[in-house]
Amino acid sequence: MIILAIETSCDDTAIAIVEIKGQKNPRFSILSNIVSSQVKLHAKYGGVYPSLAKREHQKNLPIVLKKALRLASLKRKNLKIDLIAVTNGPGLEPCLWTGINFAKELSKKMRLPLIPVNHIEAHILANLIGRPALVVGLSTEPAICLIVSGGHTQIILMKGKAKRTQFSSLIHPASRESFGNYKIIGETRDDAAGECFDKTARILGLSYPGGPAIAKAAAKSAREIIHRVRPGRTKMKMRTQSSSPIDISLPRPMIHQKNYDFSFSGLKTAVLYQVNKKYGKALLRPAKSGTTEGRQYIKQMCVEIQQSIIDVLIRKTIKATKDYGAKTIILGGGVTANNELRKQFQKACFSSGFNLFVPPKNLSADNAAMIAVTGYFRSLRKKSKKAVGADANLQIG
Ligand code: KG4
Ligand code: ZN
Fold first, then answer.
1. CA–CA gap between residue 77 and residue 286 (Å, rounded)
2. Which fold, 1-129+359-397?
3. More exposed terminus of the chain, fewer Cβ within 10 Å: N or C?
4. Atom 3, ligand 1: residue with shortest CA distance
């Protein structure tokens, strides 16, 4: 089966063509996966500007489609598209509609069925791409998914009814009824984790999107401090971050609460407060951040912002996994591209004896390949007769 998928829920215009081989244990191969980013356009606003994003999607979709088709070279391989999948939520409504309308026209023109896809579910199922062996060796218990992106921070229980492994319960036709059995058990009460990265980066005068900018500055800080330590002293290296000359400490919001919810707006406020206290009323001005001390301060603040977010995400996810008797953690969303987060989750899962699945970095952020995979599983379910429409607040479940 060949699926063409379209994703326009936020500021990326993405189209992918994915081939699915095998019924019992399907394998997904990406024939093309094009993402046209609008980051540069939105950078000056420090966030996504919906009407501008919509206009860009309209402009980009035909170009991205052409590229995706060319790269997939279906004709040469004697392949034909069987269905079209499109994100119908959650996301920015004008952006979602642009993708849906484009997909509808295409489905009419090509006489192909159109399948709506939940963006959050797609972030979870991105983990299946290129991992035919994923089914093997997983536990029979339910899995805990953590979705961390610019718009969402959710802990989702993926309930496994089947006796088989959790992922085979998604895949195996005999136990397909457990696929799509999700329950949100925790989520952010205000800002999403990615949003917190973006907003605090803005306070520090760093570029948009804030996640990669903060991660880069934090890594630089760690490297600089490591250079000051004598070579070969591994133990000392480990201690260097906290022994930095600039001592910054931020809260870990809700970390000790018994629920699985998050709150990141307080963290943003704490950063703003500390920066204002140190540098006066104004945010870091180029003049200040240009000084050695200012630059050092920003880098150290980045280390602390990143660590605060990671600490809370790991603590709550591990707690949920233990409480629900799960053995598997599945990560997804743009924030999971963060190296430190990936490393520290691996460490935490290793010491707790949990399986961890993180998508490859290019599939962590928004893409249409994950929409194709989810569209495939959706197509196996009972079809809804309702017309495909956008739902900005679409819930997984
Ligand atoms: O999943 P995604 O591409 O789009 C949404 O569905 O929102 O996630 C985008 C978010 C942004 O907030 C961005 O700052 C964050 O992911 N992000 C990162 C990193 N790369 C992207 N956050 C932390 N570290 C990164 N390396
Ligand atoms: Zn996303």
1. 54
2. Nucleotidyltransferase; domain 5 (3.30.420)
3. C
4. 365
